Amino acid sequence: MRKTKPKKRIILPDPIFNDVLVTRFVNDLMQDGKKSVAYAIFYDMLKLVEQRVKDTELTPLEVWKKALENVAPAVEVKSRRVGGATFQVPMEIRQERKMAISIKNMILFARKRSGKSMADKLAAEVVAAFNGEGGAFKRKEDTHRMAEANRAFAHFRF
């Protein structure tokens, strides 16, 4: 590579839970630079999650983290050209990318849901992901299925 790798930006933890992962989620949730609105949506979503999963002894933040883990893919396929043919090569994903993909999928499928507010839609997606269902969980399953189908090309890994 010609250029040096860019420095990792330090993400400050959120004010209430003192957690960096919450800030990363809020940063992806944010639109038009309105971080205070994104934080309000996130904390409202946690209150709704608390109401919807009363039967578990987990806190809403733990439910949200478990939901993120449930939608994080372990492998993905990348296109690789070998001798004029393009193969879908399955590759393992590093931890930071796993979290980034799961956060983005969770927000994407929450936005597609029908509901009153974004907090409501996000809470529904989090509860669905926690229970192993919903759009984001289905996306993970599809990714794993595609990687499994292309396992024969795993030797083209670079």
UniProtKB/TrEMBL annotation:
Pfam families the UniProt entry points to: Ribosomal_S7 (PF00177)
Gene Ontology biological process terms in this record: translation
Stretch forming the signal peptide: none
Matches recorded under CDD domains: uS7_Bacteria
Gene3D superfamilies in UniProt: Ribosomal protein S7 domain
Keywords attached to this entry: Ribonucleoprotein, Ribosomal protein, RNA-binding, rRNA-binding, tRNA-binding
GO molecular function: rRNA binding; structural constituent of ribosome; tRNA binding
Matches recorded under SUPFAM superfamilies: Ribosomal protein S7
Domain of life: Bacteria
Segments forming domain Small ribosomal subunit protein uS7: 1-151
One Gene Ontology term, aspect cellular component: small ribosomal subunit
Record bears the keyword Ribonucleoprotein: yes
Known partners and oligomeric status: Part of the 30S ribosomal subunit. Contacts proteins S9 and S11.
PANTHER family to which the protein is assigned, alphabetical: RIBOSOMAL PROTEIN S7 (PTHR11205)
Function as written in the Swiss-Prot or TrEMBL entry: One of the primary rRNA binding proteins, it binds directly to 16S rRNA where it nucleates assembly of the head domain of the 30S subunit. Is located at the subunit interface close to the decoding center, probably blocks exit of the E-site tRNA.
Record family assignment: Belongs to the universal ribosomal protein uS7 family.
Name the record gives this protein: Small ribosomal subunit protein uS7
Biological source species: Tangfeifania diversioriginum
